[in-house]
Amino acid sequence: MRARDLAVEFPTVTLDTPALEAARLLAERDLPGLILLDDKGRPLSILPGTQVLRLAVPRYCQDDPALARVVDEAHADLFLRQLGGRTVRECLPEQPRQLPVTDLDATVLELAALMARTRSPLVAVMDNRRLIGAVTLQSLLDHVLEL
């Protein structure tokens, strides 16, 4: 099986997409991440859901998890409000990761190797310069484990 067989349409965001909108998209569709497009509609990066969380979770709670325990439950449930008017641009790590992109002919093993090397739960699939969709870790494992 090839990437063309496993790729599905996948939501995308841009650098200027509100971070809260990205978080809602991740939650509503139960996604591991989103494909970030540049100004020309080409994949720029993968935005893992954990990067959105890093922006929303107060820094003091990230640095010292014991401090997160002292926040009462009513306020703890509202932490995503910290995203406010922030954008996806602000969610990106300082050191961008290798962009996991492949072509239509990549094999399942090539996809798995790319996911493992880039530590990404999804791979963007391109046909020349056009984004076709993505292969998720879940769909890859579902296929590989069919015995």
Automatic annotation (TrEMBL):
Q: Which InterPro entries is this protein grouped with? A: CBS_dom, CBS_dom_sf
Domain annotation CBS: ranges = 9-57, 98-145
**Coiled-coil region(s) at which residues?**
none
Q: Which Pfam families match?
A: CBS
Q: What is this protein called?
A: CBS domain-containing protein
